[in-house]
Amino acid sequence: MASVKRKAPAQAKKLDLKFTIDCSNVVEDKVIIMRDFEKYLRERTKVNGKKGNLGTDVNLSSNATSIIVQSSVPFSKRYLKYLTKKYLKKVKIADYLRVVATDKTKYELKYLKIYGEEGEEE
């Protein structure tokens, strides 16, 4: 009988996820405050089923116009969009802004185009 060689179990790859939320348009017009938005994300983000449990697996940082989320555990970009929309609803500006994916790893806050305000005269 031939001996069968077994393969060693494959080691899991270490994830290096990096997502960005670009708020440059909105911050320039002073519609939202980045410090408050970052605080909201820190408090509400769930990691391993617990709120505010970022630990060392998820790193949330911000600069003057954007928020950067880096993760070494599975983390959904869609979840960031969900939290961003909840924040916009909380500060009551969701009717004027939308969250748009501009890249595979990037969201951007853009103003909604409201038709009918300009050039509509009867």
Automatic annotation (TrEMBL):
GO terms for molecular function: RNA binding; structural constituent of ribosome. It comes from the Eukaryota. The keyword Transport does not apply. GO terms for cellular component: ribonucleoprotein complex; ribosome. The keyword DNA damage does not apply. Keywords: Ribonucleoprotein, Ribosomal protein. GO terms for biological process: cytoplasmic translation. PANTHER family: 60S RIBOSOMAL PROTEIN L22 (PTHR10064), FI24544P1-RELATED (PTHR10064:SF0). Belongs to the eukaryotic ribosomal protein eL22 family. This is Large ribosomal subunit protein eL22.
